[in-house]
Amino acid sequence: MHTPEEQQHRAARQRTGRAGYAEAGSRAESSDDDEATLDLTEMPTGALAARAKAITKQLGAHLAHLSQAGCQQQVIPLKLLSKAPRGTTAKAFHGLRASSKLVYADQVQVPWAHATFSTKERSRCAIVQELAPAAAAADADDASSGSGSQHRVFLAEPVAFYKLESGEWWVELLRFYSSKELRPLAKAADARLHLPPDFQLSYELLRGMAHEHVRLRQVQGEFKLSKVKKVPAASSRARPNPFFWRYSFDSASMQVLTDRPVTDFIVQ
């Protein structure tokens, strides 16, 4: 016999579809010229103003909620996990003992974002509202209320969903960067940013390797970002969403990395 909560989760899963799985990858090479680079503020998900109608229209109807105040809906866990997912840093981030009880989920529904996320459906990225350090430390109420004149957002790949003993849901994620965003980081580290020779400055993003943690209510929508092995043809970049990623970025070494086999890079 299943409890009412389990029956609710099973019913919700049956209504939820599953999509493809994308893995991580990257590598480093040359090139650090002064050409125009992609700024995430130039793509539909960048520097999103809570009441910027033009940007909201680009993102589509599923982000119309950003112009509305208030969010009373609750996170709906669709698939709970019996143990912590491998590699999660949730307890370390929150300074919890190893014996602390956290509830982990593999798939969740975020009603105010009109989105369902799964850690196995990695092409479906989260649009995350970025809070100032002071606001993030105090509370994240503004993330759900839509208050304030400007809210900067970033794209991220969810890797774990978990609920603290307080009942609040969080998400562990990997952030995506444009080359323009990485240049200040390289300058601050007094390092040179090396990008692959065929890196597409206007369309390509790099996935960070550092695990970040934010409240799930900071997630404001979803954005499909495909992982590819080769640069898409020019005709593919004419689509409404031409963005993609191939490589990961290690901010510690300031290097682009890949887990692809060396044979992928051998020219016949």
Tell me the layout of helices and strands:
Layout: H1 4-14, H2 53-59, E1 76-81, H3 90-94, E2 103-110, E3 115-118, E4 124-129, H4 133-138, H5 141-145, E5 153-163, E6 169-177, H6 179-188, E7 204-215, E8 219-224, E9 226-227, E10 244-250, E11 255-257
Parallel strand pairs: 7-10, 9-10
Antiparallel strand pairs: 1-2, 2-3, 2-5, 4-5, 4-8, 5-6, 6-7, 10-11
Description:
With 268 residues, the chain is an alpha+beta fold. It has one domain (4-265): Roll (SH3 type barrels). The chain has six helices and eleven strands. Strands 1, 2, 3, 4, 5, 6, 7, 8, 9, 10 and 11 form an eleven-stranded mixed beta sheet that branches. β2 (103-110) and β3 form a beta hairpin. It is globular, with a radius of gyration of 19 Å. It starts with a helix and ends in an 11-residue tail after the last strand. Mean pLDDT is 73; it is low at 13-71 and 143-149.
Helix residue percentage: 10-25%
CATH class: Mainly Beta
CATH architecture type: Roll
Secondary structure tally, helices: 6
The CATH superfamily label reads: Bromo adjacent homology (BAH) domain
From N to C, what is the helix and strand string? Answer: HHEHEEEHHEEHEEEEE
N/C terminus separation: 60 Å
Compute the number of structural domains: 1
Overall shape:
globular
Radius of gyration: 19 Å
Structural class by helix and strand composition: alpha+beta
**Largest sheet entry:** 11 strands, mixed
Number of strands: 11
User: What's the pLDDT, averaged over the residues?
Assistant: 73
Beta-strand percent range: 25-35%
pLDDT < 50 runs, ≥5 residues = 13-71, 143-149
CATH topology call: SH3 type barrels
